[in-house]
Write a structure and sequence with these properties.
The protein is mainly alpha-helical. The protein has four domains: 167 residues, Orthogonal Bundle (Neurolysin, domain 3); 63 residues, no CATH class; 160 residues, Orthogonal Bundle (Neurolysin, domain 3), CATH 1.10.1370; 170 residues, Neurolysin, domain 3, CATH 1.10.1370. Helices cover 56% and strands 6% of the residues. The protein has 29 helices and nine strands. The strands form three sheets. Strands 3-4-5-9-6 form a five-stranded mixed β-sheet. Strands 1-2 form a two-stranded antiparallel ribbon. Strands 7-8 form a two-stranded antiparallel sheet.
Amino acid sequence: MKKLLIAMAAIAVSVSAMAETNPFFDYKNWKTPHQTYPFNEIRPEHYMPAFEEGMKQGLAEIDAIANNPAAPTFQNTIEAYEKSGQLLSIVAGCFYNLTHAETNEQLQQIEMELSPKMSEYSATIRLNEKLFQRIKAVYDQRGSLHLNKEQAKLLDDIYESFANNGANLSPEDKQTYRELSARLSKLTLTYGQNVLKATNAWTMLVTREEDLAGINNDTKAMLRANAEKAGKEGWLLNLKPTTYIPVMQDCANRDLRRELYTAYNSRCIGGEFDNTQVIIDIANTRLELAKLFGKRNYAEKSLYKTCADNQETVMSFLDQLRENYMPVARQEVAELQEFATAHGFYTTLQPWDWSFYSKQLKEEKYAISDDVLRPYFELENVKQGVFGLAKRLYGLTFKENKNIQVYNPEVSAYDVFDQKGNFIAVYYCDFHPRDGKRGGAWMNDFQPQYREGKKDHRPHIVNVMNFTRATADKPALLTYDEVETFLHEFGHALHGMLTKCQYSALSGTSVPRDFVELPSQFNENFLSEKEFLDTFAKHYQTGETIPQELIDKIQASNTYHAAYACVRQLSFCYLDMAWHTLTAPFTVPADLTTEEAVIKFGNDAMKPVEILPNVPGTQMETAFTHIFSGGYAAGYYSYKWSELLDADAFSVFKEAQKKNGSIFDKKAADLFRKNILERGGTEKPMDLYRRFRGGEPTVNALLERDGIKAIVIK
């Protein structure tokens, strides 16, 4: 303890001297509301010194724990370790959020320089023999320590984390692990930056308006604004979702759709931002890591402590879904082919035709489209509706706080309170695409929740999306899918905001990958409920509440092409598992180029669920950031696994609705909140789910929701 105090005193002196020039060094004294980040003061040049000082402090704290002469206890070893590295966590919480939402060349360069340093830092801690022996000593006596559930889970997680990251390896293998980890860190970073750069680099200028026939005026106005911003005349297309999706759905110019599809699905195949060799290197490095731990492949190493637990369970689950959904998906494709033929399309449907004709058939069958629905989904109204859902279910209120600094003027910040007026969280929302923002949508925390003595440090949560912008004459009007995305990411946000845990390592969304999507996907279910739609879906011009006729059409169309959508997602799952169940290094055959070999591998992996013709020269794996630069390697199945859980969970609310007439059932919401949203990763996820549900989940609710008659239920 004395050594620890001396180390901390030295750190305090050092930090005091630097605090005047770098805001990160004085984070404990920030005068901002709720000690939120002072974004107005933070500059790119602050990051690297703060990271370096954070790593220095973290290693000093680790050294003090490892060399503590006192016998190892839960408090002086496990808790001390969990609380270490606070400055580093503060800097990283800011930096890595901004590299996704507000990046630039300077931040990207810092990220590249930082990657090997952070990898080395982590490896140094994980491979600290003295530290691990103290952790192991506490772990070995866990049965006599009288720990509560959260303490026991923290101990178990920390021990397993060290064991799974090289602590039990020989000295030689530890060095190999260190080298492989550094290599992998750099490779995944390169992969992600290549995808962002390739996406931003591609544009296409359309100079004739007739080439955009079918595209609505709002989208054309956005495309014209893109061109004006670039100093060009015409309509400028790019590969961002706000352009790609409407063009693929609405543009009657088939050649234009094909060009856009090909560009999108050949990103990072060859050229300046080639990812084909990067993929091979990532997969082979992950395999080397797995072999180092005596595992047959990376999936076996990665799936431990997930709900699925092993690759056999994952593959059985995916195969079960394929057996149930594939026959229906084939019927859907045949129906769409027949529809297209009847409308003068006399060739086989290609991938760039699917969205175009699918939208037309949907409009014919259900008389519903995004153009019909968007006037009822004005962004500000949607936001209030989503906030209102949280109030009805969990008693939360959101009050904008303009005193909270934001990282971009487009970002809004809110104080979140419970029904008793207690402060719960800070919530940031960032809605629209920018050049410095990667595609897609996500939730993250700037600062996690944890308790320190009697003080409860409440979380700072952010939702980042890429929604349609307002135009010169219209506010931001969202598509149905965009509203669904908002609900999805807000479900993650609720998981982060409502958490009530002792340790940050277990709070909020710190749960296995195949459980983390439950709260988000569960939240999506409310979008087709009249009781929810009535609260916010109002015409932006007339104020008219969405009519019952449209709600009926939404509900009737909910299962439209559900099988096709499932099969498409299964193809991503099979691709992910193929790369991460390799048992021997991937090599390029002598008769193929690297590009050809990677494309062929991807096509072969997705063959069992191929539903539309394969397009030569395209493959989505070179831009599949979820598995090659995100956290979903051997884990993309989690989305389907969580769908099973979310459908089963929402059936509790549907059953309650039948009994009391309201989908906002307080009893069901309280059970979900107390057993799922508040508990983070403090217990095994399926124990939490069973406590909420009162039993085991089944696939039946998912099949029923998707309109699929069960063929195989095992």
